[in-house]
């Protein structure tokens, strides 16, 4: 595939217009001899839903985990809320980490804890609050994600796939984050469940003013809730832009992805940022 890394199609914006919440420059990540990120650049702006796409095994989850500090980078810059992560003390790093929530693939709930206990886990780690207040907060988070109060005392194994995603989202929202990372939030859900989950993300993003970094394979999600899309190939972000801009991009991988059979069908049926008409 041709290296079109420099062909970012996003229109330049005045820097004062948008606050950059995540800024990644020249990021290199490797496992042994295998390079996964090869000088990757990415910006995520406050208040947007950024959809992050790429072929299987290209490194979408690795990038997310590197930004989160769960995978070591070999070199490059990662700035969070305007602060270089490498220059933060461990106390400052913990403070930054409390400003985000994460929904891992498949929810990653603790199977031996109830939903309520899962939601309270980040609260226990970060705050000294009474058990009663934590109970009230957990119930509020459940309501926020559309789960019934009866789900609080259930264990993950007793929940449907859609409920697990919602419970995991409630846990991600436990500390009232500004930024939320979602790793394939609609994978494993049926089309109706996936559409409802997209709608939930859009509503929360709007009402809570969240910034959302979403790794996804779901073209419907890209159409319905993403403000911008960034595409990963060969260890770099090869293009960023709105859905219209991605559709117009001539990069062969983007052409195949957005104009393949599924993409073409969706493009004919829907307008970007349109919650209606999911397949
Ligand atoms: N801990 C690890 N040790 C070694 N290699 C790893 C590790 N984690 C990921 N990789 C490798 O890094 C590459 C990128 O993996 P990653 O899971 O980020 O891909 P992805 O784009 O998220 O794929 P998918 O869409 O299939 O989930 C893969 O080749 C994977 O095997």
Automatic annotation (TrEMBL):
Any GO molecular function: ATP binding
Domain ABC transporter: 22-259
Pfam families given in the database record: ABC_tran (PF00005)
Entry keyword Nucleotide-binding: yes
Heme listed as a keyword: no
Keywords, sorted A to Z: ATP-binding, Nucleotide-binding, Transport
Database matches in InterPro entries: AAA+_ATPase (IPR003593), ABC_transporter-like_ATP-bd (IPR003439), ABC_transporter-like_CS (IPR017871), P-loop_NTPase (IPR027417)
Any coiled-coil regions, as ranges: none
Superkingdom to which the source organism belongs: Bacteria
Family classification: Belongs to the ABC transporter superfamily.
PANTHER family per the UniProt record, alphabetical: PROTEIN TRIGALACTOSYLDIACYLGLYCEROL 3, CHLOROPLASTIC
Name under which the protein is recorded: ABC transporter ATP-binding protein
